[in-house]
Amino acid sequence: MANVLIVGRRGRCYRAALRMGHSVFLWSDGLLHESRKEKLAGWIETPFKSCEKRLLTSDIEAIRKFNIEFAIAATESSVDIAAMIREEFKLTGTPLNITNILHNKNDMKLEALKLDIPITKFHLITDQDAPEALLEKLGLPLVVKPVAESGATGVMVLNSLNEIKSHAKPGMLAEAFVEGAEVSVETFIHNGLPIFHNITEYLHQWKKSIVPGAFEQDLAEAIIKINDRVISGFGVKNGMTHAEFYLTKNGPVFGEMAVRPPGGYYMELIEYAYGFNPWKTYVELETGSTPKPLPVKAKKFACVFMVHPGAGIVDEISGLELLKELKEVEQYKCKVEPGSEVGERDSTSSEVGHVLMSADSRKILLEKLQFVEDQLVIKMKQ
Length: 382
Description:
Blueprint: E1 3-7, H1 11-19, E2 23-27, H2 34-37, E3 42-44, H3 57-66, E4 70-73, H4 79-88, H5 96-103, H6 105-114, E5 122-124, H7 131-138, E6 142-145, E7 156-158, H8 161-167, E8 173-176, E9 181-190, E10 193-204, E11 208-211, H9 217-234, E12 239-248, E13 251-258, H10 266-274, H11 278-286, E14 301-307, E15 312-318, H12 320-323, E16 329-334, E17 341-342, E18 353-359, H13 362-375, E19 377-380
């Protein structure tokens, strides 16, 4: 067993490490509740924003006393910090030069071009770029996004020249709009070789996803082939990746890749569908262990329904009691009640509740998902 530093407060990650017998240290992006500290060997409560450029001397000294052997990123915002720790203390794991590239969407796409990986047309906006030139180069609709955000945070689809003038700011990445469904691929990698793939099908972006996705074998193989070329080309050796692809009429197109576990409850869906604990596997890979052989095919289907009723004040909630009666419902949570104020939905994580479900067949699962959508109603005040 080892001294392991988990960077990012994701309970299932550090609890998996604890159950495996590791001495677990946790770096939280802010204050930890006292109950979380009970089984930890130590902790840091420095906000990640303080360490975007470099680690603080006080944190380096604290980590030195921990005598850690591995640093593991549990969240998107902790990936570069974990890599900086590995660099500072000469630890194994994905190096900083790779996480830096994958954290910056423009650098990632430039690298993908060098690797001859199919991607959508893009352009990093500068103060020299006229809106008219962006429109001529990339067309409409035009997608603009921050270069270093995840979960669709800050993504805008612009449909006119006036919208480009208002929202296409220097420093943002502009992309040609891609016609086609979006999917993601979750991959475990051991010594440079992918040992598990899952394709997640986005039934409705930001709202509904199902695992595993239903695709013809040739298409699934084409997606996996590009995915593995990206992993190899970027030099990812161990751990987990979460990559997004667009399914165009000309074949799969690479969107972006993160070297970390996915959000959106996909780790839970993988567990329900395939029957193993993906967090345990992730910690094993990040600490140099060899996992037991992982399943090639899913045993069940699993889906997530993320709830957001729109901005405003909650008036009434109905349908929650029905969720208790459905055997397909694995877990659900509602974070609001009548009188709660709900903000605009600006990312995949800005939900007010979610339902996770599984079933033996895709048909049954989709039927029950539709039932939940119809019955779970959050009315807002007019």
